[in-house]
Fold this sequence. Notes:
three-stranded antiparallel sheet, alpha+beta, 2 helices, 5 strands
Amino acid sequence: MTLHYTGDTVLLDDDVCDAVLRYAQALADAQSSDVVAVPMRTPDGEQDVVEFLLGPSSQLYATHAAADVREKRHPEVVDDLDRRTQLLHPTAVVAPRSSSLDLEFDSDAG
């Protein structure tokens, strides 16, 4: 995908682009910022690294890249960005239901 930012663009593999956008959203929600380094594709198809400063005022959007771009997966990068995202928005913990709490309701109660 092509990630657009501050009047420029960078080519990212889809999984990384999606993770960057999710993390940018979480940072904006938390009114926080962070610098992330992620793999990118150069115009000639080589791998490189790009660093982004993401924060509440980041204006990012993504568009589909040319169909002839060969995708590569980056699970370690995505896992790191997802971990950072989850730290900003931890999942609510719900206590397990206990079978010892069998409540009986009195049908005659009014």
